[in-house]
């Protein structure tokens, strides 16, 4: 970002909860509803991951976020020769419904929101999750949570795809369509800028590419015969939060306003929630250092605070030792306590948009909106 002109400016910003949602999607923001505290967890076996889940819940976590290993993300069984050396390394291995049962053993699935970072085989993993819930007597209509289900960013930044783009997007919209009729509380897609930002893009590029992907999914779902209001209220987003504190606060405000404008202009929804950008944030993995790892706890604290001031609905705070390996129970607990301290000890619930009206933040927000819109327009042409 260029240097900001801090001469006198006057902004007619409106209130939080009012379109274009620059100041937040709820009138009172965290005074009305605190963000969901999630810790991304998954390693080795379903049993060990279940133990970590229950430990986090006992320590006050309010939502689960499942990390799957690479073979699972690519639709491979653990005993497939291609899975050798990768089983359980960066997440939990789920090969069958037996594994999903063990993963959620003694966890009340009707009262917890579960996020699953799964894309290419998202339909399969959601089917297993729904089946386990139904075995417990919980109908799919009572389940709340999210599947990432964002295959386009896999082609852009991660490479964990199975099928060509056309069939992959059809699976994405098939899941959106099924949930619209059968799981109305489920977020059917979490369009992810996080992985693109971790791969090296700027804040402007993160906004533009994420919203461009989202617009494409909406268009494809409408081609499938859905009305925008049938599914858009359950679209969610996933952003990274990096070290430039004020730019990150501005980024979230800019993304919210720009999404509103894009949806209203192209799709004219009747339901106000169809054009509200709801998002989960994760603090930045690429900013963590293996050297002096305790410094990462400080970095994560400021990134988490920027996410909160930007108006996130859900937050994962990285553990200080993640540049070295999987988090220990102690480091995961400290990461969770970071969120709890921000929520309970710093007065953040008292003001819906505390940076609203700041010349620096409003100028940054305007600049990010303009630059991102130009990039979206260029990509669409």
Describe this structure in words.
- With 381 residues, this protein is an alpha/beta fold.
- The chain has a single domain (29-380), classed as Methylmalonyl-CoA mutase (TIM Barrel, Alpha-Beta Barrel).
- 45% of the residues lie in helices and 10% in strands.
- The protein contains 13 helices and nine strands.
- It has helices at 46-58, 70-73, 97-103, 122-135, 152-158, 165-182, 194-198, 203-223, 228-231, 245-267, 295-310, 329-345, 359-380, and strands at 36-41, 63-66, 113-116, 145-147, 186-187, 189-192, 235-241, 279-283, 314-316.
- The protein has a nine-stranded parallel beta sheet with strand order 5-4-3-2-1-9-8-7-6.
- Helix 10 links the parallel strand 7 and strand 8.
- It is globular and about 60 Å long.
Task: Briefly summarize what is shown.
The protein is of the alpha/beta class and 381 residues long. Helices cover 45% and strands 10% of the residues. The protein has a 9-stranded parallel beta sheet.
